[in-house]
Amino acid sequence: MKLLIVEDEIASRKKLEILVKALGYDPLVATNGAEGFNLWKNERPRVIITDWVMPEMNGLELCRKIRASQGSQYTYIIMVTSKNETQDLIEGLNAGADDFISKPYVREELEVRIRAGKRIVEFQSRDVVIFAISKLAESRDPETGYHLERIRFYSRVLAETIATLENAPSEVDGLFIENIYLTSPLHDIGKIGIPDHILLKPTRLDDHEFKIMKQHTIIGYKTLNAAAKQDLKAEYLNMSAAIALSHHEKYDGSGYPQGLRGNEIPLSARIVALADVYDALVSKRVYKEASTHEIAKSIILAEAGRHFDPMVVEAFKQCESKFIEIHDQLQTNDNQSRV
Questions:
Q1: Are 175 and 156 in contact (CB under 8 A)?
Q2: Could you tell me if 42 and 148 lie in one domain?
Q3: Alpha helix locations (H) across the chain?
Q4: Of the candidates 41, 77, 80, 120, which lies 20 to 30 Å from 34 by C-alpha distance?
């Protein structure tokens, strides 16, 4: 990851450069804001540590210029300042700073702040790539509009609500919630391997066609599991593979492709299963009109313990107003797919 230091004072710049190198980075270095902005334009570092007070262009001006020019790739900016007044910090945040650090530099604090910035830009990069891949699969399916956006928001709301339940599973922590938001749009990535005459058929599938359609869960799993093996530290890839494989499993064991039941089904897949069915119910499809929220709710509640995990259904009951809000904000009149 590229990192840029922008500091006009020679002693401070040298010390910061030494500290950053000790943390394993080979930083780009600029002596003022104007030089820093030109380096940023040419090299596109993902994290910048910049002084506030500098000649030619100060840190605030640098932040504003970067924010006005950055496009879709986010740059995390840490502002070096001796200003501790609330109004000064607000001014820095409004200009586009993400974090602040004071002189003299403390290695441990610097490391934590750089790590936080790195995590955010890496997450943003993964998010962009994953959503682009999800959209690629979606482009071959009449499941258009805001379906993927709704699925990720429904899934996150369910996970956040589950975390508040009594005896909530310990796995539902901040990372789990972050990852399910990131990976749930990949649930149908396997449809990219389904023939068009089946995927795009405007009427219901016959038994043979449906057997082929069900293979999208296995195709998606194999694709994402192969990616996960290339990056053993990427927990989000393991979750995405589990969701792709198991989001059509049912709590009573009557789903596919493996006929898993109960807690044999990964929790992430149990969450996405409810989110996906809800969205299908309240969306117009090629062969049906959209159902109301109340009808969708009654179907989901009736399927607790059969199609859906009762715990996930309980979470849905507690956050149903957020489902309505998400649906209302991300509506589409496009036809939706069949599976």
A1: no
A2: no
A3: 10-22, 33-43, 59-69, 86-95, 107-138, 147-162, 174-183, 196-199, 207-213, 216-230, 235-246, 267-281, 293-302, 310-318, 320-329
A4: 120
Task: Say yes or no: 202 and 71 in one domain.
Answer: no
Residue 95 sits in the same domain as residue 147: no
Residue-wise pLDDT for 270-294, tens only, equals: 999 999 999 999 988 766 789 999 9
Q: What are phi and psi of 65, to 5 degrees?
A: -65, -40
Structure-token match 């969450």, residue found: 271
Q: In whole angstroms, give the CA distance from residue 22 to residue 26.
A: 9
SS3 at position 66: helix
- Residue 110 belongs to domain with CATH number: 3.40.50.2300
Same domain for 250 and 164 = yes
In which domain, by residue range, is 98 found? 3-118
What share of the chain has pLDDT > 70, as a percent? 88
Banded pLDDT at 203 (limits 50, 70, 90): confident
**Chain-centroid distance, C-alpha 138:** 17
Burial class of 117 by CB neighbour count within 10 A (0 to 12, 13 to 18, 19+): buried
Residue 125 has pLDDT above 70, yes or no: no
**If you search the block for the tokens 């989110």, which residue do you land on?**
275
Burial call 24-40: b when 16+ CB within 10 Å, e when fewer: ebebbbbbbbbbbbebb
CATH classification of the domain holding 167? 1.10.3210.10
Q: What mean pLDDT is reported for the chain?
A: 88
Structure tokens, 169? 């599973």
